[in-house]
Amino acid sequence: MFPYSCKLCLKIKIHCVNQRMFCTSSLLSPLQLPSQMETHLWYILPNEVKSESLMKKYVDLLSPIEKEHVCSMRRDELQKNALLARALICSQVSPRSIEFKKNAHGKPEVCWQHSDDWHPPPLHFNLSHTSSLIACGITVGSPIGIDVEEKQRTMKNNILSFARRYFSREEVERLSAISDPEVQRQEVIKLWTLKEAYVKALGTGFAGAPFNTFTIRFGSANPNPNAKDSAMVIVPLENPSLLSTNWRFAQVELAGSHYAAICRENGGISEGAPMKLIVRKTVPLVEEHCVSEIDTVV
Amino acid sequence: MASIAGSSSLMASLSCHKPNQALSRASNFNAVSLAINGKSFPSLKLHSAPSRLRVSCAAKPETVDKVCSIVRKQLALPEDSAVTGESKFSSLGADSLDTVEIVMGLEEEFGISVEEESAQTIATVQDAADLIEKLIEKK
């Protein structure tokens, strides 16, 4: 029914009671920001969004610059997905009070337009999409990066050549030891999403943290990545003893078709407390339903 | 006072902001005689030297074509789809995984090694081709 799995969860609560329908007159839902301990992951399946009039409403949500960006996409499918991605963010956070800007490295950020007596929440978001799914991670008070890939995605290059080119030696060793080629392919893609989510959370671009300069290690004590107590840590290759535990990871499957990786900073989550990941599927302005709430381990 | 017929247009074309245009107009005058205040000056030979006045050192068309075909293959685009030097990878639908696979393909095809800092600056096919030629030159 809910075809997802999470390697890090201790407790999985499945809720599908939270189904909300929006009437067309109230186009924008009230702000529903995550608490500091939560991470929200929203996703859209573009193939399920077909209504022309709905697409027009999405266009109306955009600023002129964003409209231009959407129109610069060359293929209809790309245009639609670019539009949906922006509608996803704008429908979750009132577009009238925010603008989007890019940081020094090109990472999109929220820029609140506010009056002097209102202190807007430190909202962070990150988008990722494939041709068939668009996802957005939202936190308050902590940088976030997410990445999604289709489970069935094939690599044009040889899997291990790809791993050797981009991953660290420790990671290549772990992946080379997998005997089943299909499982190996899946693990390469999952690891890619984790590393990409981390680099996106850092916000310094691909060159800021080249993939082969750090290892994502699964639970130092237990080499089995499926173990419930496995946690993911960053090991910078320059100084392997300096494990970074500032970052939390989660890996989930979405809609039975995609791997998603989420990475956020610890900020707001007290030591030892679990990060709560809430996954919701949505059609912006129309409906949303909560797919799962997951308590992830440290 | 220059007494060449059409001198003002020649001066105008030499001082215009688009050097290539100036050259294409001036290339009709291989030799020009200037007579100023009755004194005549030796002929000015205008050499067309487009490579010196080009704004950027663009890669060879063959390089651009090879990049286009690697991109088409990676993104599984039909043969007749429009992929040119100006094509932006993001507009063609390449995500980050496609981009690194393309970089890998280019490294293998051209026998080069692309640093992450350089890879990050590539936005269009032309950028990739220019970088490739720069790296080949360095070898």
TrEMBL record, chain A:
Short name of one Pfam family: ACPS
Keyword Transferase tagged: yes
Protein name, per record: holo-[acyl-carrier-protein] synthase
GO cellular component, one term: cytosol
PANTHER family per the UniProt record, alphabetical: 4'-PHOSPHOPANTETHEINYL TRANSFERASE SUPERFAMILY-RELATED, PHOSPHOPANTETHEINE TRANSFERASE
Keyword match Ligase: no
InterPro entries from the UniProt entry: 4-PPantetheinyl_Trfase_dom, 4-PPantetheinyl_Trfase_dom_sf, P-Pant_transferase_sf
Keywords: Transferase
EC assignment: 2.7.8.7
Biological processes annotated in GO: lysine biosynthetic process via aminoadipic acid
Molecular function via GO: holo-[acyl-carrier-protein] synthase activity; magnesium ion binding
Domain 4'-phosphopantetheinyl transferase: 143-222
UniProtKB/TrEMBL annotation, chain B:
UniProt keyword annotations, A-Z: Chloroplast, Fatty acid biosynthesis, Fatty acid metabolism, Lipid biosynthesis, Lipid metabolism, Phosphopantetheine, Phosphoprotein, Plastid, Transit peptide
PROSITE patterns: CARRIER, PHOSPHOPANTETHEINE
Protein family membership: Belongs to the acyl carrier protein (ACP) family.
Record-linked SMART domains: PKS_PP
Record organism: Cynara cardunculus var. scolymus (Globe artichoke)
Pfam families on file: PP-binding
InterPro entries: ACP, ACP-like_sf, ACP_chloroplastic, PKS_PP-bd, PP-bd_ACP, Ppantetheine_attach_site
Function of the protein: Carrier of the growing fatty acid chain in fatty acid biosynthesis.
Locations listed in the record: Plastid, Chloroplast
GO cellular component: chloroplast
NCBIfam families the record matches: acyl_carrier, PRK00982.1-2
Main location (coarse class): plastid
Superkingdom of the organism of origin: Eukaryota
UniProt GO molecular function: acyl carrier activity; phosphopantetheine binding
Protein name (record): Acyl carrier protein
Domain Carrier, chain residue ranges per copy: 61-136
